[in-house]
Amino acid sequence: MLSFLDAVVAFPTALFTTFLGVVIFYWLLALLGVVDLESLDLEPGSAADVDGYEISTVASYVVAFGLHGVPFSIAVSLVILVAWTLSCLGAMWVLPWLGGAAANYGAGAVLALASLSLAVTVSARMIRPLRGLFVTHAAINNASLVGQTCKVLTQTVDEQMGRAEVAQHGASINIRIWTPVPNALARGSSARIVGYDEKTARYKVVAEP
After folding, report:
1. Within a 10 A sphere around the Cβ of 182, how many other Cβ atoms?
2. Beta strands of the chain (E only): which ranges?
3. How many Å apart are CA 100 and CA 145, to the nearest integer?
4. 142-207 CATH choice from 3.40.50.880, 2.40.50.140, 1.10.1200.10, 3.40.50.150
5. Strands 202-207 and 190-197
6. Distance between alpha carbon 162 and the CA centroid of its chain, in Å?
7. Angle subtended at Cα 109 by Cα 105 and Cα 113, rounded to the nearest 5 degrees
8. Which residues belong to CATH 2.40.50.140 in the chain?
C-alpha cells in the first residue's frame, strides 16, 4: 500500500495536487483582498467571450452539473478538493493491487476520470444547502446608493474588480465597485459612489478627497 505522501505526488493524484495548489493560492489571495470572490462568476445568459469560449456556454455546463447557485470559485474549489481526496484514496488502496507500470498508468487514468466524475456529483450535493447563503437580494432601487460614501474592502480597485461596504441604518451592504486606474483607492479607503451600472450590477466610485 502506498503511503499518503507517495500517493499525493504520484500519478494520477499529482494532477489534482497541482490544481489544489492553485486553488489554495487563489484563496490566500482572496483572504488578502487581492482578488474578488465573485470575479470568476459565470452567469447564464451572459454572452461574453473568454479565450474563444462564450461564458453562456460554460455557464450552461455549470448548471447542467448542478454546480450553480454559489460563486464559481467555490464550485471549482469543491470539485478539485473532492477529486483530489478520491484520487488519493484510490491510489493508496486500489492501485497497489495492480501489477506492472503499464497497468498502473492505465488504471491511474481510469482512476483520475472516475475521481473527477464522482467529485462533480458529490460537489453538486454539497452545494445544494449552500445556495441559500449566496442569494442576491437586489435593492428596490440600487441607484439610491449613488452619492453615498463606502469603505473599500479589497486591496485595490480597478475596472475589473473591487468590493466595498456601505453603512445603512446600523447594518452594512456589501457591493461590487469599480473605478478607472490609476487611482489611490486601497483597503480601508473611503470612496463616493457616483454611478450604478444595471447590466453588470456594479457601482462606479471615486476616491474621497
Report:
1. 7
2. 49-50, 53-54, 149-152, 163-168, 171-178, 190-197, 202-207
3. 66
4. 2.40.50.140
5. antiparallel
6. 15
7. 165
8. 142-207
Q: Computed over its alpha carbons, how large is the radius of gyration of the chain?
A: 21
Q: Helix-strand-coil percent breakdown of the chain, rounded to 5? A: 45, 15, 35
Sign of the Cα torsion 152, 155, 156, 160 reads negative
Question: Cα(188)–Cα(177) distance, rounded to whole angstroms?
Answer: 14
Cα 70 to the center of its chain, rounded Å: 9
Q: Which residue has the cell 492553485?
A: 22
Q: At residue 47, does pLDDT exceed 50?
A: no
For 20, 47, 76, 88, 138, the CA distances from 84, given in Å and listed in that order, are: 7, 32, 12, 6, 37
d(CA 77, CA 146): 35
The per-residue pLDDT for range 131-185, each reduced to its tens digit, is 877 765 554 457 788 999 999 999 999 999 899 999 877 678 889 999 999 999 9
For CA atoms 82, 21, 130, 121, the dihedral sign is negative
Give the global pTM. Answer: 0.64
- Where does residue 1 rank: exposed (0-12), middle (13-18), buried (19+ CB within 10 A)? exposed
Which amino acid is present at 198? E
